[in-house]
Write a structure and sequence with these properties.
Elements lengths: L13 H4 L1 H4 L28 H4 L3 H35 L9 H32 L9 H8 L9 H14 L3 H5 L8 H31 L2 H18 L4 H10 L4 H11 L2 H22 L7 H7 L6
Helix pairs in contact: 4-5, 4-7, 4-11, 5-9, 7-9, 7-10, 11-12
Bound molecules: fe (ii) ion (2 copies).
Length: 313
């Protein structure tokens, strides 16, 4: 059960523990061997495990892995400010449509600072690695993802702010294997492991905040709004966790793989079942939060989560 916002202690030690206040800028190791380590753990990049990719020469696989890292860092850098800060600012400014305490507002300001810093170091790490490795990052387009995520609220313009709050609740309560696995992986370039570790620690606090926030939000919604939230949430989860197949395909293209090979690699690495399986895994705690809060008790809600593939028999 998530705790009431008034009992939330996660940010009491923020001044002493948040990454932005206690860590120095993370820099690439001086050690020449370090940059030769992995850019990303292979088990987290579906297309790198495809047989048609595994049979390619090592430099090509390394190129694809670097592009995946750049893509993830660029995504993070944009997402934190464009989506997380957008909604969190509404809370911080006491403009989120709910009654919110000054303490919860100050915690929201702390989150804004954390996320701005995560954006900064995501870009910083990408830039440092690009320069040292000599592997140039392909252009990155965040607007496609954002347009798709924001389209969820298109039919309900009067609830735009509420939809933005749902986006942040969902994303901040997901458990990503990236944040969990990379810090412990000694084969990964040190600066990546260090920044992901820093990031994961901050996100633990955010997770507690947004779990409590959602419970408060739900408690203050009327029945019509609750019905709408229950209807929209599966789509928010699925669209938040869609894998970035366009950048993957662009990297395969740039690496010189033929169109038919590229198509097979993408189609087989990101099959509907595989994608839904990983979305279900990443969203299990988020869905459990919605279960505890009573979202799934709304008429038709449980069916909606089942048909989106977020719940299985
Ligand atoms: Fe973050
Ligand atoms: Fe966060």
């Amino acid at each position: 059960m998530s705790i009431p916002m008034s009992d939330l202690k996660a940010f009491d030690t923020w001044y002493e523990k948040s990454g932005v206040r206690v860590t120095l800028r993370r820099m690439l190791s001086e050690d020449d061997e370090d940059i030769l380590k992995d850019f990303f753990p292979r088990h987290l990049v579906p297309h790198l495990n495809h047989p048609l990719v595994r049979e390619q020469e090592e430099p090509l696989q390394r190129y694809l892995s670097a592009q995946h890292l750049y893509q993830w860092l660029n995504f993070t850098s944009h997402f934190e400010v464009a989506v997380v800060c957008r909604a969190t600012q509404q809370i911080a400014e006491d403009n989120c449509g709910l009654e919110i305490s000054n303490r919860a507002r100050m915690d929201a300001f702390k989150i804004l600072i954390d996320e701005g810093y995560h954006s900064l170091y995501s870009l910083d790490v990408a830039d440092q690695i690009e320069k040292r490795s000599g592997i140039k990052a392909l252009a990155y387009d965040f607007q496609h993802f954002l347009g798709n995520l924001d389209a969820i609220g298109d039919d309900y313009p009067q609830h735009k702010r509420l939809v933005q709050l749902l986006q942040v609740v969902v994303f901040e309560t997901l458990i990503t294997s990236i944040l969990a696995d990379i810090p412990a992986d000694k084969n990964v370039i040190s600066v990546i492991r260090e920044t992901v570790r820093d990031h994961a620690i901050d996100e633990g606090r955010h997770h507690a905040y947004f779990s409590a926030f959602f419970t408060q939000l739900w408690g203050q919604l009327d029945r019509t709004e609750r019905q709408l939230v229950a209807k929209l949430l599966p789509d928010v989860i699925v669209r938040s966790l869609q894998p970035a197949t366009k950048p993957a395909e662009a990297a395969l293209n740039q690496a010189g793989l033929k169109p038919e090979i590229r198509r097979s690699v993408i189609a087989e690495s990101y099959s509907r079942d595989a994608v839904l399986g990983s979305i279900r895994f990443a969203s299990a705690k988020t869905v459990a939060l919605f279960e505890q809060t009573g979202v799934l008790e709304m008429p038709g809600a449980r069916d909606g989560f089942f048909s989106a593939g977020l719940l299985v028999e």
